């Protein structure tokens, strides 16, 4: 019996070990659940306290700059990239062959029309003139003698002393000498013309370019390069393009006899270079780009525009009067379209959807959505939300200058 008891006890220990383990696992799970519940309960109470403190804390007041909506005249502009094109560009060439004796201009000089700029050696043409004048004097003497003989032959013919054929021959000789005298006069005029061409003058007024031929060289009328290029600067034109969809509006204004102003700006649209007016419209639309070219005339008194310079042209088509405008910086854009923040009573900013028309000079025309005198947020709108409390630090009274800077940037 003693031998069997230890074996039975070992067997009971082996059979009881899993139950003990299961019991310990149950108590461990129960402890974890209790700990999680206490943690959640404590965290919720803490969050509730923080939320209560947050709810009790007042919303922050955001400083903004506002501007009142007002009425003004707004211009409707059409913009296009263009280039400065001179009215006249002339390559000065010699019209006679000879040696270039003098160059009387400086590179870059402004010359007037008809001003002497170069001289060709005139001596060969002076010799030709002398020869032509001597030939004419000779032929005039022969003509005078032939006319005297003709008078004698006419008298003798009336007296029936000579044959009529002799008188007719003398008349033909007189006409022959008259023709020779006219030919001599033509040679004289041609020699004088060559002498005139030996003095090269500016065909148009403008700016002289770089000299292409130095004095002492032999120049010919058939030379392709010429002596110098003169470009007219006053007045000057700008050729720019606009979309074909805008062409009917421009043509309607031109047919009505309106003078359409054009402004020329630099490449960055920051500085206005000069003002002029629309001169004409091209006679066809470019099918490749869908644009039409326009030419504007500028007086260019201060030489602000330079030939072949790239500029931005702005054509004023019409002016809208008494339009509701706000600073362009006040216009915000979102998924639902354009809107502004309006400062209402109690210094509360609310979102107001608006419809925007033309935007020029830093101001945007509002078609609908606002009334005259309502304050809109110009600066600080990026931090606002619907119903946010604001403090108007100042009102934007120079929207035009600020808008130009923003647009230029």
Features:
single chain; 409 residues; alpha+beta; conserved putative lor/sdh protein from methanococcus maripaludis s2 fold; Elongation Factor Tu (Ef-tu), domain 3; 4 domains; 6-stranded antiparallel beta barrel; 5-stranded mixed barrel; 5 helices; 35% helix; disordered N terminus; disordered C terminus
What does it look like?
- The chain has 409 residues and is of the alpha+beta class.
- It folds into four domains: 38 residues; 101 residues, conserved putative lor/sdh protein from methanococcus maripaludis s2 fold, CATH 2.40.420; 99 residues, Beta Barrel (Elongation Factor Tu (Ef-tu), domain 3), CATH 2.40.30; 131 residues, OB fold (Dihydrolipoamide Acetyltransferase, E2P) (Beta Barrel).
- The chain is built from five helices and 22 strands.
- A hairpin with a 3-residue loop joins strand 17 and strand 18.
- The chain is elongated, with a radius of gyration of 49 Å.
- The relative contact order is 0.17.
